[in-house]
Write a structure and sequence with these properties.
With about 325 residues, the chain is of the alpha/beta class. It contains ten helices and ten strands. It is globular, with a radius of gyration of 37 Å.
Length: about 325
């Protein structure tokens, strides 16, 4: 039996296997070692021709080659072939974009919407949200909401000192209460009646009646929070969103004088291990002065009891800033 490689090299059948008639194939070193029948077939197909990794068989002997392939009896040769094939590296996985920055994929217009299974989007981790803020993809309020999760547990008591349109209040009640928790309380307040109305409507639309009972709304200045929060209650989190009401009158803003009193009150009611979270907007008249007051207040807190942090975009002077005051004990 004679086999011809595509590079022109002839092979002849000998006892026990195949061997090269001449000493070189495709300018490679001679192969003097005989091969078993199973390995010879594999090498003819995969290795003997260095340029093409294939081999052709003369047409007059093609049926003999096919017969020999089907009659491989050498256990060692077949085992070596299977082991070689199992060592082939798997195809590389597809490249995935970071899930926190990728946009939701759109379905083709020809796809039947009823045939697509609906899946819930997993919540982003605190690290994802923080990196999104670093890359300009997440807002300051989103960072604040993410950090609250590390402090607040079910059953805790928290204060929303400036409930505004109610988004912070809604996030807080979902952190401290659920349908299986009897404790957990959110004290939310604002000096504007329209804020309480908007917040109440949002809560009614978003919460079950049982969860809605965990929130109390007060029309009052945040500097008087101690008047509605029981003195024997350990408050885990106090939230401030300083500035003006989004969509409201920009002339109605939080003031440095009353905000300072509110921070003093928050410091007194906060339990050890609790957090005061302050988002300060500085792009409106009076916002910069209020930020400087908050920063001065934080800088004077004793280092033994408090850890004070500021998150600020340096090249965006009008961007909101985050100030976090963590009480160690």
């Amino acid at each position: 039996m004679t086999l011809t490689c595509r590079c022109g090299m002839d092979m002849e059948k000998e006892a026990g296997g195949f061997s090269l008639r001449r000493g070189r194939c495709c300018n490679q070193e001679s192969r003097s070692k005989r091969m078993t029948s199973g390995l010879a077939i594999h090498n003819i197909m995969m290795r003997i021709c260095c340029h093409t990794a294939t081999a052709t068989i003369t047409s007059s002997r093609r049926h003999l080659f096919s017969k020999s392939c089907s009659n491989i009896q050498s256990a060692s040769g077949w085992g070596n072939l299977k082991r070689f094939l199992s060592l082939r590296p798997p195809p590389p996985p597809p490249t995935l974009l970071p899930h926190c920055f990728s946009s939701a994929s759109s379905l083709s217009s020809i796809t039947d919407a009823s045939s697509v299974a609906t899946t819930s989007t997993p919540a982003l981790s605190e690290e994802d949200v923080m990196m999104g803020y670093v890359f300009g993809k997440k807002k300051a309020t989103q960072v604040a909401h993410s950090l609250w999760k590390r402090v607040v547990q079910k059953g805790d008591v928290v204060i929303d000192a400036t409930c505004g349109n109610g988004h912070d209040t809604l996030a807080l009640v979902n952190l401290v209460a659920d349908n299986t928790i009897h404790g957990g309380r959110v004290y939310a307040m604002d000096i504007q009646k329209v804020s309480l109305e908007t917040t109440s409507l949002l809560l009614d639309q978003s919460l079950t009646p049982d969860l809605r009972k965990h929130v109390e709304l007060f029309l009052m200045c945040h500097s008087k929070m101690e008047e509605v929060v029981p003195s024997d209650v350990a408050v885990r989190l106090v939230v401030f969103n300083l500035g003006y009401l989004p969509g409201g009158q920009k002339a109605l803003i939080t003031r440095s004088e009353t905000t300072l009193l509110a921070l003093e009150a928050a410091k007194r009611v906060l339990a050890p291990g609790g957090l005061i979270s302050i988002v300060v907007y500085v792009g409106h008249p009076g916002g910069r002065e209020e930020f400087e007051m908050v920063q001065a207040f934080a800088s004077e807190l004793p280092v033994q009891n408090w850890v004070c942090t500021k998150l600020q975009m340096l090249n965006r002077p009008s961007a909101p800033m985050i100030i976090l005051l963590y009480r160690r004990w």
